[in-house]
């Protein structure tokens, strides 16, 4: 029988590793579901297959959600191996296939629609998210005096308590100044709500309300996270490199930055035609007259 103490030890190890409260909470909820289902069964490969089938039969869980739930169980099993509680990971190469899809992002149309209904504060939030790719928690942690208003430089503490630098464009600084000019409070927070410093939940509620207001809520999955993806895509399209993007987004692995920066086929076509690789190899590459006549 799987002891709940083992789950507690696993969570304690993840806390010590510096994982966020949200990640710890997700692990706890998903592993509680697994422990309840497992009951007095041993953790074997066959039982993991049965659990996976149990998840897949739940009509409320999408394929992606099933994969995420099972992935956390696999991480837990890997930890049991590391702790020499299991001899081998029964979840090794076991899991559902999930169709790969590009991460959601905002189009120029979506951004224009949002900004059209924003007040000074909400406009500043949207602009800063687009300009920096910050996480909601990082945005909400910023203080007014954390920004160098001459250079736009600032620093935030991201996942794993890792500090990193960021820079605001002059346009974003101007939008922020316009917003701060409307403030009459003494809060050090860069963004405030009705009860003080703005929270990530407050940012999400605001974006949900604005997106509903202009009819784009169904177009964009993950309203806050999509700003990070939009920033990544724009950064790469404008000539930025993946390693710099990784630093700016605070990713530990460059593969995650590459995932965020994926371009749709139409975007790839636009970049290809703009870059024109043939033009580098064939000086003055032009359309042959014979082709123009066809």
Keywords:
two-stranded antiparallel sheet, globular
Could you characterize what this model shows?
It is globular, with a radius of gyration of 24 Å. α2 packs across α4, α6 crosses α10 and α11 packs across α12. The strands form two sheets. The protein has a two-stranded antiparallel sheet. A two-stranded antiparallel sheet has the order 3-4. The protein is built from 15 helices and four strands. The protein is mainly alpha-helical. Helix content is 56%, strand content 5%.
Ranges where pLDDT stays below 50 over 5 or more residues in a row are none
Largest sheet: 2 strands, antiparallel
Average pLDDT works out at: 84
Distance between the termini: 75 Å
Strand content: under 5%
Query: Structural class per helix/strand content?
Result: mainly alpha
Number of strands: 4
Radius of gyration: 24 Å
Please tell me what the overall shape is.
Answer: globular
Which percent bin holds the helix content?
Answer: 55-70%
**SSE order:** HHHHHHHEEHEEHHHHHHH
Number of helices: 15
Oligomer: single chain
The main sheet orders its strands as: 1-2
